[in-house]
From TrEMBL:
Residues 92-116 are annotated as: Disordered. CDD domains: RaiA. GO terms for biological process: negative regulation of translational elongation. It comes from the Bacteria. Residues 92-101 have a biased composition (Basic residues). It comes from Paraconexibacter algicola. This is Ribosome-associated translation inhibitor RaiA. Pfam families: Ribosomal_S30AE. Keywords: Translation regulation. The lineage of its organism: Bacteria, Bacillati, Actinomycetota, Thermoleophilia, Solirubrobacterales. GO terms for molecular function: ribosomal small subunit binding. NCBIfam families: yfiA.
Amino acid sequence: MQIECKGRNVPVTEDLREHVRKRFAKIERQVKGGVLEVHLSEEANPRIPERFVVEITLHMKGCTLRAHDSARDLRHAINLCEEELGRQVKRRKEVRRHRREAHAMGGLGQRLGQLT
């Protein structure tokens, strides 16, 4: 999976890129051939308590998943987004599996109906 990190008002260091790679390793194992875009930003307004905003877009075959979160710490915002995106990937895989099973069972039901 290709991971692209971009920052606005936030320097994207190699340490930060490594943190993103580690957090998204599980999703990378589940999704083959996807492109993950990570947009990191810091709000300039000091009155906003959760200044760091992370927006993640995962382009997969057949669909695009998005997660957005903010926190007081940039790494915490990345972790929150990873959890949200992980839930979405899991739900997407379950939907595909159920559709595949229903399709297989539908064909089996028709064949059994013809036999009786």
